[in-house]
């Protein structure tokens, strides 16, 4: 250990003889290390925003739907009973701890009437969580509350309200839906239709919807729906308790496992395939692609930045070996081994790269305050000077980037310091002493 410290101190003293050259050599590693940490922080910030947008689209959701079975046995039945039940909902909530939110709905096409205006729209029985799940916003009035159960209240989507009431305020007015009358308590803001994502999520149009409490739907509309088929008194019916249950889990990693448990529970209590468990695989793959893309980009940046610094270190050390040829000859003449020469020059290289790396890490950790200062200064000069994404970007320091940049800087010192050190050690002592 004493010998190691002596070699290290000797390397520091040798570097201090050429302070400017040593500082410039360490500057390359300093810039490379700082660049890695800063760019990783920027990349993590952008990646985090992208991940949040993907998650908002429903990457952590599992959609369980009721589907009508097509078995030959059920083909002749006048009233079919199928799909999800309220018991299924209770079993999922009590047996699957990874579920953080479950939103059941029941929906049907119905004719809405206000005065002489008529509209065929979708009547949706839902809970208070339906608003946040579908990223709906209230334009007038309020949304459904838990104490609205069994009350004849309704919230209209923007398109539904405009078709039935024009530009008149619908709050407090009555809407007839088939034989029931509901009081309008709210109207949602316009919401763009969601596009289909791969084969996982279907497109959804929110313009012509109307929302009532799920319990109200159950008691006013009921589970059994009869529809006329053809002329006369031919009717066909179906009994469905829930159209869909949307489950939300805590993280993307829990989606597949939770979906498997849901499928197991449904298989156990359903004697026919009258349900579908839909996992947003396309969104999950997009999230994984985004994460991988940023990781690869950051590794490339780290390699290029520190490679440039390493080449600078190697150049300086080769020049140092040439300048100190006579010193190397004297050391060899008084008994220094080749390994001692190698250790001396490697120690000097590690001091340069280690010192530059540590300073780079300290400066890199100041990424957030410096970025905020530069952004605020640019906004004072001109609000339109920066792209919109920069105004909301928040750098996120990744701990792994700190250790990676420091490790790479030391590795660069070893790799690019070996050749100059070996070149110094392989010198002939007699030729080295004759060197002018």
Key features of this structure:
alpha+beta; six-stranded mixed beta barrel; Macrolide export ATP-binding/permease protein MacB; 436 residues; 13 strands; ATP-binding; 2 domains
Shape descriptor reads elongated
Secondary-structure element sequence? HHEHEHEEHEEHEEEHEEEHEHHHHHHH
Share in helix = 40-55%
Largest sheet report: 6 strands, mixed, barrel
What would the average pLDDT be, to the nearest integer? Answer: 80
**Structural class, from secondary structure content?**
alpha+beta
Number of domains: 2
Whole-Å distance between the termini?
35 Å
Radius of gyration, in Å, reads 35 Å
* Uncertain stretches: none
Strands side by side in the biggest sheet: 3-4-9-6-8-7
Write a concise synopsis of the structure shown.
The chain has 436 residues and is of the alpha+beta class. The protein has 2 domains: 2-54 and 287-434, no CATH class; 68-273, no CATH class. The protein contains 15 helices and 13 strands.
Write the layout of secondary structure elements.
Layout: H1 2-16, H2 19-59, E1 61-66, H3 72-75, E2 79-81, H4 86-95, E3 99-114, E4 117-126, H5 130-133, E5 138-141, E6 153-156, H6 158-165, E7 174-177, E8 180-188, E9 209-213, H7 214-220, E10 224-228, E11 235-239, E12 244-249, H8 255-269, E13 275-278, H9 281-323, H10 325-333, H11 338-364, H12 367-381, H13 388-392, H14 399-425, H15 429-434
Parallel strand pairs: 2-11, 4-9, 6-8
Antiparallel strand pairs: 1-12, 1-13, 3-4, 3-7, 3-12, 5-8, 6-9, 7-8, 10-11
Helix pairs in contact: 1-11, 2-9, 2-11, 2-14, 9-14, 11-14
């Amino acid at each position: 250990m004493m010998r190691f410290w002596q070699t290290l101190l000797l390397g520091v003293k040798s570097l201090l003889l050429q302070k400017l050259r040593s500082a410039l050599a360490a500057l390359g590693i300093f810039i490379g290390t700082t660049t890695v940490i800063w760019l990783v922080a920027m990349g993590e910030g952008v990646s985090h925003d992208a991940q949040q947008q993907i998650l908002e689209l429903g990457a952590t959701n599992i959609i369980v739907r009721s589907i009508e079975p097509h078995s030959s046995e059920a083909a002749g039945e006048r009233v079919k009973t199928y799909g999800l039940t309220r018991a299924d909902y209770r079993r999922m909530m009590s047996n699957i701890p990874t579920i953080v939110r479950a939103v059941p709905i029941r929906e049907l096409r119905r004719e809405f009437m206000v005065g002489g205006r008529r509209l065929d729209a979708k009547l949706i029985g839902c809970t208070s969580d339906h608003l946040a799940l579908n990223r709906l916003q209230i334009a007038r009035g309020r949304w459904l509350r838990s104490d609205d159960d069994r009350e004849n209240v309704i919230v209209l989507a923007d398109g539904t309200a405009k078709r039935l009431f024009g530009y008149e305020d619908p709050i407090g007015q009555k809407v007839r839906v088939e034989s029931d009358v509901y009081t309008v308590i709210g109207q949602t803001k316009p919401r763009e239709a969601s596009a289909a994502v791969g084969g996982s999520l279907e497109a959804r149009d929110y313009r012509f919807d109307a929302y009532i409490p799920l319990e109200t739907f159950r008691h006013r509309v009921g589970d059994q729906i009869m529809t006329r088929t053809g002329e006369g008194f031919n009717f066909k019916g179906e009994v469905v308790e829930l159209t869909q249950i949307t489950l939300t889990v805590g993280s993307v990693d829990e989606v597949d496992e939770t979906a498997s448990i849901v499928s197991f529970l449904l298989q156990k209590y359903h004697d026919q395939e009258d349900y579908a468990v839909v996992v947003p695989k396309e969104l999950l793959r997009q999230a994984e692609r985004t994460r991988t893309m940023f990781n690869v980009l950051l590794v490339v940046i780290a390699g290029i930045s520190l490679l440039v610094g390493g080449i600078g270190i190697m150049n300086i050390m080769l020049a140092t070996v040439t300048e100190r040829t006579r010193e190397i000859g004297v050391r060899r003449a008084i008994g220094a081994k080749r390994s001692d020469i190698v250790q001396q020059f490697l120690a000097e290289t590690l001091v340069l790269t280690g010192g530059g790396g540590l300073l780079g890490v300290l400066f890199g950790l100041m990424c957030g305050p410096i970025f905020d200062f530069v952004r605020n200064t640019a906004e004072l000069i001109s609000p339109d000077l920066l792209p919109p994404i920069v105004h909301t970007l928040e750098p996120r320091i990744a701990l792994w980037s700190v250790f990676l940049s420091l490790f790479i800087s030391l590795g660069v010192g070893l790799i690019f310091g070996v050749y100059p050190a070996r070149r110094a050690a392989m010198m002939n002592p007699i030729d080295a002493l004759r060197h002018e």
